[in-house]
Amino acid sequence: MNPSDPIAALEIGTTRTVIAIGEPLGDGRMRIAAYDSIPSSGVRKSQIVDVAQARYSVASVQKKLVTQFDYAVSQAYLVVSGPQIRTDQFSVQVQLPRATVTDEDIEEIGERMYDVALPQDRQALEIARLSYGLDDLDNVTSPKGMSGHLLKLRTLCIHGSAQRIADAKNAADAAKLEILDVCYAGTSAAAAVLTPQQKRDGALVIDLGGGSTNFTAWADGRLLYADVIGVGGDHVTEDIRYAFSISLAQAENLKNTSASAMIGPDDASVRIPLPASTPGFNDASISLRALNTVVNARLSELFTIIRTKLDEVNLLHRLNAGVFLTGGGSSMKNVLPLAANVFGRAVSIGQIVPEIEGLENEANPAALATIVGTLIQTVPAESENKSFMDAVRSFFGGNKKK
Hints:
There is one protein chain. Among the domains are: 86-160, Dna Ligase, domain 1 (2-Layer Sandwich), CATH 3.30.1490; 195-352, 2-Layer Sandwich (Nucleotidyltransferase, domain 5). The protein has eleven helices and 20 strands. The chain has helices spanning 51-69, 103-112, 162-174, 185-193, 196-201, 233-244, 248-257, 288-312, 335-343, 369-376, 388-396; strands at residues 7-12, 16-26, 29-39, 43-44, 47-48, 75-80, 86-95, 122-134, 137-140, 150-161, 178-184, 203-208, 213-219, 222-229, 271-274, 284-287, 322-326, 347-349, 356-357, 398-399. Helix 4 (185-193) crosses helix 10 (369-376) and helix 8 packs parallel to helix 9 (335-343).
């Protein structure tokens, strides 16, 4: 691939199927030249349940890109998410031939970190270095030059279901779209919104998708924790639908136009009209307080689950840069103060890093964080044989399974 060639990324999400195209500008910068999306078909809770329908979604977006932007996409990087994603820690070690750790020793153990013993039905997506150990000393930041006999490396492996990933690839392949590689949505979202300083200071990125929520925690410039919760914006819509016995379309409209993640003091006095879904029936109304109570309960539960997981690994106190929300759910009214109440940290909408151009007029660029972050991680370098993806992953403390 020529370093100046456009790069495409594909996301087959629960709510929508998106393809974005980035044009490398050099020096790690990129312009989002085009992107388009349609509502997804054949996808439930971030997983494909009908390959034929998913193929149609992919092909439809490809057609829109040709019609509207004159871009014919034949290759792309695939973003994956959903409850199929899991994380595990692994350890590798090497016996030191000398009494002092050298660059060669660190390189050797870095190569061994890819020898993870995953079941055959699992596919490694990202492998991040957590910490080194030397003999009986743990949590070594940089072992070079230290004395010892046994060098150890603890890693975090993010992996997905090989079958579910194959389903997404098959849908793309049927649309004549070749998948070059697969990326995890959580680290892609972080790549799109976190600066190097924020990664050093400690940050949590929560990507609020339609069928699931990805989150990653960073400190000392490294990925330290990643997970997926099988709850997203579609679950909020379903809660509203069942609570008020209305149609899915009505529930989605209420969520987007009237609902709030926080319960206001005057909500009880406000009623929201509901046009009758069946001709001949009278219009109805619901209490704004009741609506916001439903939304608040689901989102509070989601954020509390994430906080509990971070507390269990003693990471919450390290998030000095704060919490950053991305994904379509980040635009929910009053979601920021709700998250701030749960995490006890400053919470903000993730801002796309300044190296990315072309989204200046976008109303909610944080909703595109996963696909933009995937493009960031796949920009080729203009010089050297090392790809920009390798450089980014090296900086983040993580690497791709080759």
